[in-house]
Design brief:
Layout: E1 4-8, H1 12-22, E2 27-31, H2 37-55, E3 66-69, H3 72-76, E4 81-84, H4 90-103, E5 109-112, H5 119-122, E6 132-136, E7 146-150, H6 157-169, E8 173-176, H7 186-202, H8 208-226, H9 229-235, H10 240-248, H11 267-281, H12 286-306, H13 310-323, E9 333-336, H14 350-367, E10 378-389, E11 398-408, E12 412-421, E13 424-437, H15 448-461
Parallel strand pairs: 1-2, 1-4, 2-3, 4-5, 5-6, 7-8
Antiparallel strand pairs: 6-7, 9-11, 10-13, 11-12, 12-13
Helix pairs in contact: 1-2, 2-12, 9-10, 12-13
């Protein structure tokens, strides 16, 4: 993965790319002539941090740095990838990409976020056009995993492959568009829906809120899980797609939609849409709406992760990658209690204490080398927990979780966690973990190098005073 990327444009899409890169530990160099660009990007990055804090419990790398530069050439010098996200004007995008291509190293990937311009047109005049590819993301870039990859006539197969690997390491799902076509795949589908939505409002059939409700309460939920064709295959019942096409295919000849006819965007229609949209927002600012959107997307992605399906599978793969390379990390775990952990009585729900202890266990496993790669061999699973509540936690509290290894052998790991609020213990948990072999699903010895680290850690911790509550049980 590139250690530094150059961003040409820091608006909605460019800012989303910046957040996706920075929160994956990658430095970004941004060129955007808008004097407000730094402020806007800071706000997007703040929302992205908030969303990532809810999206995953895996340990994120140290954030990359954001540097604003004065030209496309400066943004491209010494970086591994350039991501152009300027407005959809062919002349502007070409100018920026050509300047960047002259300044970038010969092996630097040149990528454009264009939503519809053809890559063959964009790569004309570039220095090294074979390394250019369209990498079209979706807003918010830092949460939605899809990125469409489309090459032009001079784009090499190696470029497509390299770009796919780069974006996959960012937690994205690269979709290769094999045929160069206007609008690629996703936007052609979205454009058809957008045309019909405009007609429904233009003809006073529905308001903008009613159009959105029709999608978000109905088919939109299905499409998030199954897409288009799989949704309709299921609609065909046991007979599948063939039956669906036979039953509903004739309706395609009915005059239901106006897919190639677009209403004129008159001042009257624009005013109508804008007024209805303002009412629909109900006083929420753009940043507040973005946060609401992000929270809903996080919940949906986490639900899909539980099913190991679609975008949830991509999220899980990214999280496994975050677990790699943690060996040697030390120190207590620090967390700020989020508002959603609070229950009806204003206190943190008791299940969240166990979640904090689980996070601390994951951090401990990272220090002994149980990373994403090791999971193919095995992992430690908690067999027994004794949890003691000693105080109350509230939303916004910053807590620290310390961990002491009380004992270990080839199969067992005995740990004691303490949650600290300032200098006061809020809860403790004593746990016994057993090492489970991935191939058998049964308890088995850890790999020799893991055993060695566990025993060494237990020896180091033996000099610490034994916790007062260690070995306690609930009295009769």
């Amino acid at each position: 993965m590139a250690k530094t990327v150059g961003l040409l444009g820091g608006g909605v899409i460019g800012g989303g790319w910046a957040a996706r890169f920075v929160l994956n530990g990658i430095d970004v160099r941004v060129f955007d002539p808008d004097p407000e660009a730094p402020r806007k990007l800071d706000e997007v990055l703040a929302n992205a941090r908030r969303a990532f804090g809810r999206l995953t419990l895996a340990p994120l790398p140290a954030e990359g740095a954001v540097t604003f530069v004065g030209s496309a050439e400066e943004a491209a010098e010494g970086v591994g990838l350039v991501q152009e996200s300027a407005p959809e004007r062919l002349d502007l995008k070409r100018s920026l990409l050509q300047a960047a291509s002259r300044a970038a190293a010969p092996d630097t990937l040149l990528c454009s976020s264009t939503s519809g311009l053809l890559p063959t047109e964009l790569q004309r005049g570039l220095s090294g056009p074979g390394r250019f590819v369209v990498a079209h993301p979706f807003n918010p870039v830092y949460l939605l995993p899809l990125v469409e990859l489309c090459g032009g006539v001079e784009t090499s197969g190696e470029t497509i492959s390299r770009a796919g690997n780069e974006y996959r390491e960012l937690g994205m799902h690269p979709l290769v568009v094999r045929t160069e076509i206007d609008g690629f795949i996703a936007d052609r589908l979205l454009e058809a829906m957008w045309r019909e939505a405009l007609w429904l409002v233009n003809d006073d059939v529905a308001t903008v809120a009613e159009v959105d409700d029709a999608m978000r309460y109905g088919a939109g939920l299905r499409f998030a899980l199954m897409g288009t064709f799989l949704t309709y295959r299921i609609a065909g019942g046991e007979a599948g797609m063939r039956h669906f096409l036979a039953q509903f295919g004739p309706a395609l000849q009915w005059p239901w939609t106006k897919l190639t006819d677009v209403p004129e965007l008159t001042d009257e229609l624009v005013d109508k849409i804008a007024a209805q949209s303002d009412a629909q927002a109900d006083g929420l600012s753009v940043r507040e709406l973005e946060q609401l959107r992000d929270d809903c997307l996080v919940a949906l992605l986490q639900g899909l992760r539980g099913q190991s399906y679609a975008g949830g599978d991509t999220l899980a793969a990214w999280e496994r990658g975050l677990l790699d390379g943690r060996e040697g990390e030390t120190g207590p775990l620090t967390r700020r209690v989020p508002a959603e952990w609070v229950d009806y009585n204003g206190h943190v729900h008791e299940a969240r204490y166990l979640q904090l202890f689980g996070d601390a266990t994951d951090a401990l496993l990272g220090t002994i080398g149980v990373d994403g790669a090791y999971l193919a061999h095995g992992t430690y699973m908690t067999a027994e927990t004794h949890l003691s509540h000693l105080g109350q936690l509230h939303a916004g509290d910053e807590v620290t979780v310390t961990t002491q290894v009380l004992g270990a052998d080839e199969k067992r790991l005995h740990v004691f966690h303490t949650i600290w609020l300032d200098d006061t213990a809020a809860a403790t948990a004593e746990q016994m973990l057993l090492h489970v072999d991935a191939s058998t699903g049964r308890v088995g010895p850890a790999a020799p190098e893991i055993q060695e680290r566990v025993v060494a850690l237990a020896g180091d911790h033996a000099s610490q005073p034994r916790p007062e509550r260690a070995g306690r049980r609930i009295g009769g």
